[in-house]
Amino acid sequence: MKRRTFVKNTGLIAGGLWLNHADLFAANAGRVINIGVIGCGDRGKGIIGMMDQFPQKFKVVAICDVLDMRLDEARKFVKNGNCRQYKDHRQLLDNQQVDAVVVAVPLNMHYPIAVDVLKADKHLYLEKTMTYTIQQALDLVKLVKSRPKQVVQVGHQYRYSPLYFRVKEMISKGYLGKVSQVDCRWDRNANWRRPVPDASLERQINWRMYKEYSGGLIAELLSHQIDFINWAFDTHPSDFMATGGIDVFKDGRETYDNVQLMLRYPEQNMVGNFGATCGNSRDGYLFKIKGTKGTVSLLMDRGMFYPEKGLLKDKGTVDGVTGATKITWDKDGGTPILPDATKDGTWYALNDFYDKIGSGLLPDSNIYTGAKTAICVHSANQALYNNEIVHWKDEYQLSAP
Question: Which is an annotated GO molecular function term of this record (predicted)?
């Protein structure tokens, strides 16, 4: 069944988002950026594989990990036979061939390695969550402000997805009406544990399970959805409430395997519910934004809009919003937001990283937005693990120059 969508002939993408990218590409045309990757776990290897799709833009010339097994795994993802390998990230940063660095290490090492990258005069793609503590986020903002010639992008890739970009526009133009509720889940039925070839490597390999290294489910999963709400509404929560526990896997872990957050956004008169469990996979990834005129329901690469019943009866109103002459609804009364599934958000984010290195402009996911979301994550974890209500502080207010 053919459906009309919220982007008439994909005009938003073809006419706006991609034309801006084309202009920026001209400033960088023909240049290949030499990349060093610090951290060769799943995320680091994934980024290496993604960069291989852009041989005219990126060349991975150096990789680094403290574990030999990770270097051996990453080597298979690097198509460049001359790629150098390091176990000490400072040696990689001494390599003058490296123009920019991807940092995909355990969360507790984000800040110290990011500082070293900046002081080595390299551009930086820093994976989420930006820092392990709030003070580190504030300090990193100060350091980046003092080094304006370096591009720093943070790995919250929803800010680059055409689907999520479109949803942000729908919110700003009032298509959803007054939004009062956000419901998010990221569930799985698995213990999050990785095989350990030697017991001495337990904390290095399964670092996500230990508070010394990790922000747990909130930092690793829910931070993406928290960041999108910050971006879409140009806001941040003021009150953080949470509960959870080690309810499923009694295996010595310290970070909770079952969490539920409730965040209050008083400026928007809005409540955000964010949850994750390792004990059930039925819902998987869910992201619902609920307004007086309708609901957006998102997966990572697809989205649907469901008008409220009164609006659904008045097709003319909906047609005026979408620009479509006729809308065909599915059996649940919804219509797709974009005609086709989008690529992984990292694909778009890496394209933008390349463009911003060429133009020197501030990335959409930058040091300021990354700090805001890091502060949210750590405030939520404080509420979770200390069983208290945490409030946003005035000194957390950050703005780009």
Answer: nucleotide binding
> In whole numbers, what is the pLDDT of the chain averaged over residues?
89
Computed from CA positions of residues 233, 239, 243, 244, in that sequence, does the dihedral angle turn out positive or negative? positive
CATH number at residue 318: 3.30.360.10
Task: Write down the pLDDT at residue 397.
Answer: 87
Q: Is the peptide bond before 346 cis (omega within 30 degrees of 0)?
A: no
Distance (Å, rounded) from C-alpha 61 to C-alpha 207?
Answer: 27
297/240 Cα distance (integer angstroms):
24
Q: Which two tokens stand for residue 51?
A: 């960069």
153 and 290 assigned to the same domain: no
pTM comes to 0.90
User: With DSSP H G I counted as helix, E B as strand and the rest as coil, what are the percentages for the chain, rounded to 5?
Assistant: 40, 20, 40
Q: Based on the structure, what is the number of domains in the chain?
A: 2
Where does residue 113 fall: left (phi above 0), alpha (psi -120 to 50 degrees), or beta otherwise? alpha
**How far apart are the C-alpha atoms of 138 and 70, rounded to whole Å?**
31
Give per-residue pLDDT as tens, 316-339.
445 445 444 445 556 677 899 998
Cα–Cα distance measured from residue 238 to residue 229, given in angstroms and rounded to the nearest whole number: 13
CB of 62 within 8 A of CB of 37?
A: yes
- Which of 80, 79, 62, 81 minimizes the C-alpha distance to 71? 62
The residue range of the domain holding 189 is 175-337+371-395
Q: Which tens digit of pLDDT belongs to each residue from 13-29?
A: 333 333 343 443 344 55
pLDDT in tens, 57-82: 999 999 999 999 999 999 999 987 78
**Which tokens go with 105?**
């290490």
Contact between residue 258 and residue 279 where contact means Cβ atoms under 8 Å apart: yes
Residue 271 and residue 375 in one domain? yes
Beta-strand (E) ranges in 11-88? 33-38, 58-64, 84-86
For residue 350, being part of any structural domain is answered with no
CA 133/CA 375 separation, integer angstroms: 8
User: What is the distance, to the nearest Å, from the Cα of residue 396 to the centroid of all Cα atoms in its chain?
Assistant: 20
